[in-house]
Amino acid sequence: MMERSRPLAITLIDSQAPVADDAHADRARDASEGPRTLGQRAPAFLFVGDTAISEAQIAGEMQFHRAMKPEQSRASAARALVVRELLRREAERLGIAQDLQPHPGEPLEEACIRVLLEREAESRMPSEQDCRRYFEQNPGRFHAPLRLRARHILLAAAADDVNGRFSARSRAEELIAELKTRPQLFADFALRHSDCPSKDEGGDLGWLERGQTVPEFDRQVFRLRQGLAGFPVESRWGYHVVQVDGIADGEALEFDAVHQRIRDYLELQVRQQALQQYLLELQHRYTVRGLEAIEAAA
């Protein structure tokens, strides 16, 4: 006996408007609820007051909050959307949109949030006494840049020459092995093998500070201890055999030299603390539900 086919659920739209207009209107009505799947609205487990923040909205926000695990990205996105909704509601309660002139190209909602934060979490400039107190309590933080004296032997190879770079690394490893037993030959090896003009000076680079060499070389060299590096240091130019001959801590700086740096740092700290306190107040004013569960799952 032939089984009867089940009827498909069909929704008839009784409208005189063109189909495209109807579709656009329906989409506009539910834009805040996220996209639908087979006619179903995206589920929502997160609420600020009576406003639902759907999983679709969280998924859309996750692209701006990369993390090692999707649960962590979801939690960061949820927090960001909660903060935005708290600020939006408070700006609406205070009527900030009235007589507000947004910057060119700035959405009204963004302008309201900006003005709200400027008004409620305004910058508090630390006094000179605050700065001097911080300077005296943290003497180890204010020194001239660390310097080191180094020599090197460059085995050059183009960045896109795979075989050449493999050969350069292998040769650098051989030189390191020899220098471990005969360190006095470094200048001689530099003269014979290095592709850097410093070979005429025994590979001497002089005293270096951070930022004086290419970034990839800089990062590795300033992590080395004094003596011969036990591995080749890679850069865009090839591989380097590096000998660190001296490391010097920078001299302690005077207060006047770091006054502005301290002022900027303390101002940022005060603003962040003020903003955190303000958001806590808003969270008590507009009940947030569901965020703790999302954060616990991360």
TrEMBL record:
<dbReference type="Pfam" id="PF00639">
    <property type="entry name" value="Rotamase"/>
</dbReference>
<dbReference type="GO" id="GO:0003755">
    <property type="term" value="F:peptidyl-prolyl cis-trans isomerase activity"/>
</dbReference>
<dbReference type="InterPro" id="IPR000297">
    <property type="entry name" value="PPIase_PpiC"/>
</dbReference>
<protein>
    <recommendedName>
        <fullName>peptidylprolyl isomerase</fullName>
        <ecNumber>5.2.1.8</ecNumber>
    </recommendedName>
</protein>
<dbReference type="InterPro" id="IPR046357">
    <property type="entry name" value="PPIase_dom_sf"/>
</dbReference>
<keyword id="KW-0413">Isomerase</keyword>
<dbReference type="InterPro" id="IPR027304">
    <property type="entry name" value="Trigger_fact/SurA_dom_sf"/>
</dbReference>
<dbReference type="InterPro" id="IPR050245">
    <property type="entry name" value="PrsA_foldase"/>
</dbReference>
<keyword id="KW-0697">Rotamase</keyword>
<feature type="domain" description="PpiC">
    <location>
        <begin position="145"/>
        <end position="246"/>
    </location>
</feature>
<comment type="similarity">
    <text>Belongs to the PpiC/parvulin rotamase family.</text>
</comment>
